[in-house]
Amino acid sequence: MVTLRSTAFAAAGLVALLLAAGCGGGSSSSANTTEASGDSYGNCKVSGKRGEFKLNPVVADTLSVQGDLPSPGWWNGDTVAQIKDGYEYCMAANIAYRAGLSKLAIENTPFDALVSGRTQNFDMALAEISITDERKKVVNFSAPYFASNIGVMIKNGTDASAANIKKLRLGVKQGTAGALWVANTLKPEQQPKVFANDPEMSAALQAGQIDAALQDVAIMLGSAQKSNGLLKVAGQFDTGESYGALYPKNSANADTINKIIDQMKSDGTLDKLSADYLAKAFGGDPAAIPQWQAS
Questions:
Q1: Range with lowest mean pLDDT among 17-31, 32-46, 151-165, 176-190
Q2: For residues 153 and 229, what is the distance between their CA atoms, to the nearest angstrom?
Q3: What local confidence, expressed as pLDDT, does residue 240 receive?
Q4: In the predicted model, is pLDDT for residue 23 greater than 60?
Q5: Distance CA 204, CA 195 (A)
C-alpha cells in the first residue's frame, strides 16, 4: 500500500463548529446502484473467493456504501452515476464480492454527517476518513487501511512555506481531521474559512479567496491533478493519521467486514488498488513533497 511519510483564534469554537451538524444537513444528494455483471462491479476487477464471508446488509443482496463524492483516485467520476472505479469504490466492490452480494449501492453523503453519526441505512462508509477518538464516540471504525498526512495546496505563484503558513488565509473542509489539526496544532493567525466539500474549497483557492487549502495530502494531490496546472501541493505535515472504514455504531457486520479488509491487506488487493488508481491520480510521488513542521 502507498503510505505517505510519513494571534491565534479560539480553537474550541471552531472545533465545536466542525463536530456539529454542518450546512450539508445530513441529507444525501444522490444515489446509484451497480449490479454485478458476472464477477465485475463497474470497471473494478475483483479478487478472492465469492461468498466466502456472510453479511446481513441493510438492503438484501446489496452492499450499501456512503461516501463524500467525487474524490479523484478514490471515487472517479463527476457524478455518482458516473463513478465506476477508484480505490475506495473498488475496495467496496471487492468487499461485496467476497460477501457474495450482487449489488453495490453508492450514496453521496456530506462528510460532516458521516463523521457525526447522523446518517442511516448503510453498511459502511468510505470517504478517506481519518480515525479519531472523538469520532469513535458516535461511529465505529475498521482497522486502518491507508495512512495520510495533511497536504498544503496552493495556487501556483503563491508564497507559502512552513515559515509563513500561519499568516496566510487558510481553507479547511468541514468536519475533517485536517480542520481540527489546523485549529488545535497549527493555530493560524486568522480563522480559516470552512468549506462543505473539496471542489468548493479548490474553487475558492483558484479564485483567490484563500491562500492555501489544507486537507489530507492524498485528496489534495488529486485535486491539484484536476486543476490543469493551476494548483499544486507545496508541502505536507506529518500527523500520523490513518483512514478507516466507518460503520454505524454497534454494527453487526463490523467484525466480518474487518476480516475482509484484513484479508485484502494481506493478499495484496489494497496494494494493487493503490497502484492502479492513486499513483495516477497523484500525478507524482507523494514522498517527494517537502515535509513541513508546525511550529
A1: 17-31
A2: 12
A3: 81
A4: no
A5: 9
CB atoms within 10 A of CB 54: 9
Shared domain for 212 and 68, answered yes or no, is: no
Percent of the chain with pLDDT over 70: 88
Q: Do residue 203 and residue 250 come from a single domain?
A: no
Encode pLDDT of 117-146 as tens digits: 999 999 999 999 999 999 999 999 999 998
Domain holding 214: CATH number? 3.40.190.10
At position 228, the amino acid (one-letter code) is N
Q: Is the bond preceding 110 in cis, omega lying within 30 degrees of 0?
A: no
137 and 222 belong to one structural domain: no
Distance CA 101, CA 75 (A): 20
Residue 68's CB is within 10 A of a number of other CB atoms, namely 28
With vertex at residue 4, the alpha carbon angle to CA 260 and CA 165, rounded to the nearest 5 degrees, is 135
Q: How many domains does the chain have?
A: 2
Question: For the segment 148-190, what is each residue's pLDDT rounded down to a tens digit?
Answer: 799 999 999 999 999 999 999 999 999 998 999 999 999 999 9
CB contact at 8 A, 1 and 153: no
Phi, psi of 110 (to 5 degrees): -55, 140
**Sign of the alpha-carbon torsion through 111, 116, 120, 121:** positive
